[in-house]
Structures are given as structure tokens and as C-alpha cells.
Amino acid sequence: MSNLKYFFEPNSVAIIGASGRDGSVGNVLLRNFLSKKFKGRVYPVNPHYGEILGRKCYPSIIDIPDEIDMAVIATPAHIVPRVLKECAEKKVKSVVIISGGFSEIGEEGRRREEEVVKIAKESNIRIIGPNCVGVFDSKTGVDTVFLPRYKLNRPEAGPIAFISQSGAFASAMMDWCASVRLGISKMISLGNKCDVDEAELLEFLAEDEDTKVIVLYIEGFKENEGRKFIDAARKVVLRKPIIAIKSGRSRGGARAVSSHTGALAGVDQVYDAAFKQAGVIRAKNFEEAFDLAKALFMQPVARGPRVLIVTNGGGAGVMAVDACEELGLCVPELPPEIQRRLYTKYPPHCIVKNPVDVTGDTDALRYRIALEDVLPTEHVDTAMVIMLFTAPLLDLTVVDHIADIADSVGKPIVTVVMGGMFAMRAAELLEENNIPAYPTPERAAKALWALHEYHRRREEIRKILFGESGYALKKRGVKSNE
Amino acid sequence: MSKARKIIEEVLSEGRNFLLESEAKMVIADYGIPVTKFEIATNEDEAVEAANRIGYPVVMKILSPDIIHKSDVGGVKLNLKNDQEVRQAFKEIIENVRKFKSDADIRGVTVQEMAPEPVAEVIVGMTKDPQFGPAIMFGLGGIFVEVLKDVSFRIAPLTAYDAREMIQEIKGYPVLTGIRGRPPADIDTLVNIILNVSKLVMEIEEIDQLDLNPIFAYSKGAKTVDARIILSKPEE
């Protein structure tokens, strides 16, 4: 199947519609590919230039004396079909169509898009777009994001792949990830999805070694596309988690309903059901999506819903309990023998029921004791560690203690770090050690929920796909990472 | 050909896309979904005989492809306790329907067992989603569904896990586990009904929309009191 790899690691690229005019789309595109990061060969194409940025410019892709793996088209829409035919003649493997002016503008554009699809089908060209910002790959330097770097910073390499229907959303996300130093493996903006869609990309990213978690931004599926998405996602979530942000736009074109059920079937509820059944974790928004992504690539899954809370602030502990319970997690009281064991190591003013409150005079060691003595036991599945660094004796050695235990325990730990500059330094240090840190108990609870939800959904899907044994799954070519 | 499939073909061959209540109940019964006992009667004598076989009290409802909202036109009579009441109800139902639509195609009345008071009324339905195909719905009947829209969905085909989860997901779920000294509803039976609806709509693709509303849930078992099935319009 997949010749999608030419979108991410082409040996040669033609920029059709390259331009000498500073700041124009065709100019930014060319500059992107001329950066040191991209190791492939780059050819500008535009009949109006002999040379751009010191490179020989070709009147047409046909004139390039080299094989071309990928073409990026940023010409006016009406000449795209002609340019695409030339790509076909040149035996180009993948094409990103940046240009707008297709099905999104109405009947004329729709006909143009159909023509594009026809040419692509006949010549085995794969298309991303049209009407998109295309592809970004932090490793190979492929970058069709036509926005200049001083306005839109590029994120560093990392484990998150991002697929977005909206180009604006994708660009904003990249800039934001760069600013908070969250690493991205690949970003794909799909635009009108005339060829490559979410389902196919998910299956491609399942195989991608640089991607550990996939974040999707979806506005809506085309008719019957939903079913295909569920089938694809189910196979992928066995290997890596998928997080989806679905915007709540209503479905175009109301449909006559004469049943109760029809009248009650809100678009959102049906998507919600589909995500659950596909094992896809739904996030409310951007911020939450990356909160959850962070937890899912840094920590193992939670095999149950029982949370150990360790805190040095009583109020924060109560907030954490409320947040956990609201999400269907539970905070069980620790059994008496464990409480007794903790009291042999703690002063009597500590509270050891769960939350374990190590109180304001805590040092780093009290955190270690709670995690070491309780987290490995059969009574809890996961831990939330809340640290108010205003406590005078609490220093950053607590990070080493937590990281130490996280490495050996096989259960997830998330942290809540509340406070200003010092707290932010602690949060950075924690995340360098693959311990996710959040500014509030609510956000940390949602991360724990996601670690449990992913596990639970994946087990159900494993049963659906494997049946009683692994045989059915193997037969269908589905791989599992466990 | 299954009994259900045969009924669907007959309805389509008549150029209809609405199943009569009796047809809808026979279709779902063929898929193992429990329904109230019923018989079709075309005159007063037949109605009385049917009522005696089913046992009093009974319910009578108009059977006509021209009448969709049966109670709105006076086409339903509840809690009939003896032969006399059945005869009277038969006359009144036919008269009411004729008043509403003089040339209505009346196929008779259904005489049905009057299902006893349930632990809870629930609704199971299906609608075709343009992106995902058949979507199955579960909810509690009455104000829960009418006012609070307290329902949950899953895309067919469903697993037992899906079915159980969609029951637990609704806010009114405690009503089914027994509150204020009421016994809990038979959740396993509801799970089976949902799974059988999933099977039915996957196997008979012509079904466009389906409402089992209400289903009376008991502490043991359940009974579908009213059922509506709408087929997709044949290609024109």
C-alpha cells in the first residue's frame, strides 16, 4: 500500500509556483526547503524567473533534469490541473497542493477538484490537500508550511504526530509547541482531503518509529468516512494512542427524521460514541490534547482506576480527590497495615489515609517514602504527586526520588507543581525525566484518566480484533506492540 | 429467508416504508427481542376471542398504514377488562379513525396484553448516521428522554461491553439499579435487546430508523410495548 513516505522523506522536491518576492507563499516554501535541515535536492519551478535565491528556476517540472519524488504546488487554482498533468508525465510520486480554490468554494471548485483526483488516480500520484498547509517533518526537514519562521516558529523533534483538517489550527499548534518546547515528529494538514485522509495517515503513522502518540484535529468526516476511520483507528491504538479534538460544528444539511432516535442523535454524541469504540481519547481542546499526549508518551498505562495522592497541601489534595472522582477514578482509603507502616516513618501530624498529606514541613524524602511503600502494592494503580514548592524544606532532589521510583514501579505517576518561577523550574526538570507535570490537580487528573481510558479501550479492541485468540488479528495483518 | 426479511419484502412490495406496529413487533420478535403478546382482529367477535386467549386486561390499537400517531386520533384503548369493553372499544376505534380519515386503509385492530407496571420504561432506537452508519441509542423513557435528552449512543455493530457501557453511561442509570426500595431492572435483558437490535440493523440494511419505545423493564425480563420501524425509501 503506502507510498506516503515520499511526503516525508523525498530525495528531490520541486516547488511549483516558487517566487522571488520576499514573504510570498512561493518564496517561503523555497526557503524552507533550502534550509540546512533538508538534505534532498530542491528545484524551483516558475516560468517567470530564470533564477530564485541563487537557484536555477525551471519553466516547468518537465524541464528538470532529475527524477522528482515530491512536488509542492502553490500556483493559482485554475492552472493546478495542468501542472498536475506535468507532474504525472514526470512520474512524481507525491504532491502537496497548497492552493485554495477547490471544493471549498463551490461548484466550479468542486469540478476542478474532481479533475485533480482523476489525474492523480490515473498516474498513481498521491495528494495531500488541496487547500492546506501540507507537511512538516522535524527529522527530514520537509516543511511546506508557507508561513515565515519569525512568525511561526518550528517545534523541535519529538514523539507527537499531529494531523489537522484545518491549516490555521495546525500552524498555531506548531508555533505553540515550539514555544513550550513540546517536540513534534510530523505535522500533516489535510485540507480538503481529496486523496489522503485521516484513516490512511493513521495507519502510516502507526509504523512510524519517531511517533509515539498521534493527536488529531477533526472538523468532520465525509459521508461514510467515519466507519473507515473507526476500523483504521482500532488497529492503530493497539500500537500507540490517538487523541482527538473534534470541533462542535453541526452537520451540514439537516435530514428529515421521523423517529425519536433520529431527532435525538446529536452529531457530537455520535462522534463521541465512535471515538470510544475506536479507542480514541477525546480531548476538549488544544491544551488538553497536549496535556494528555504528554502523559501518554511519558508514562505507562494505568491498569486500573485507583489513585494514590501524595500532597503537602490539604486543600490541593481535596481538589485532586474531587477531580479524580468526577472522572470516574477513585481514591481508596489505604488499608490499616499500610497506614501503620507509614507512621513508623512519618511524624504523627502527617495524614496517611489517602490523600497522603506529608504536610507543609515535608522534605523530599517523605514523598519518596509514600511512593515507595504504597505505589507498588496491589491497592493502587497510579499516583498523583502534588508539590507546593513554597514548603521550606522541599528541594529539587524530590525529582530524582520520583524519577527513581517511576523507573522501577511500572505504574504511571503524574505530578502537580503549583507556584511561580521555582515551581516552573521543577516542572521542567520533572519533564526532562519523563514525569509529566501540570499546574492544577484537575489537569493532572485528566491525564491519569487518559492513561486508564487508553488501557481499558485498548483491551476491549484487542478482544474485538483478536476474538478468543490472536489468530483472527494476525490473519488481518494487524500488529500489536505487546 | 428469515421471517423478518420476509415481512420487510412484503412491506416494500406494497410500496410502503412504514411498518405497521404488528409487523415491526414480528420483525423484532424474530430477532429474539421480547414483545407484548398480541393478535390481529378484523371484527368485534375476533377481538373478543383474541382478548380471551391473551387474558384480561387488554389494550387495543388501530392497525392501519395510514395512521402513524395512533393515540392522537383516538386509535388506542387501554385497560379493557371484559368482552363488553372490547366490543365497545372496537367500535369506537374504527369510528374515531374514520372520523380522522374517512378513506383510511384499516386492516383491523391489534388486541394486546396489557403489560404490568414496569420497574422503568426504557427506549432503544437506531438511526442511520451519514458518516458512521447505524447508530444505536439507549435511554430511559418518559421525561428522561423527552426533556433531559438523557441518552447514549454507540455505532453498530456493538459488543456486549458497548451495550453495557451505554446503559451505565446515562445520568438516570441509578433508576435501573433500584432506588427508593424499588427492585433493580434486569440489565442483562436490556443488554441483549440492544445487541439484538444491533444484529437486526446490520443484517437488514433497508431499516433506516427504529424506535422501541417504550420497553417495559422488569426485575426479570422486559417487554417491548410499542415498536416503530421505518425503511429507507427505495431508489427513485
Describe what this molecule looks like in 3D.
The complex is a heterodimer of chains A (482) and B (236). Chain A is built from 17 helices and 18 strands. Chain A starts with a helix and ends in a 7-residue tail after the last helix. Chain A has helices at 5-8, 25-34, 80-89, 107-123, 167-179, 198-206, 225-237, 260-264, 267-278, 286-298, 314-326, 336-343, 364-374, 397-409, 421-432, 441-466, 471-475, and strands at 12-16, 41-45, 51-52, 55-56, 70-73, 94-97, 126-128, 134-137, 157-164, 184-189, 213-218, 242-246, 281-283, 307-311, 356-357, 382-388, 413-418, 437-438. Helices cover 40% and strands 16% of the residues of chain A. In chain A, the strands form four sheets. In chain A, strands 8-10-9-11-12-13 form a six-stranded mixed beta sheet, with helices on both faces. In chain A, strand 16 (382-388), helix 14 (397-409) and strand 17 form a beta-alpha-beta unit. The longest helix of chain A has 26 residues, at 441-466. The relative contact order of chain B is 0.17. The mean pLDDT of chain B is 93. Helices cover 36% and strands 27% of the residues of chain B. With 236 residues, chain B is an alpha+beta fold. In chain B, strand 5 (120-129) and strand 6 form a beta hairpin. The interface between A and B is medium-sized, with 29 and 30 residues.
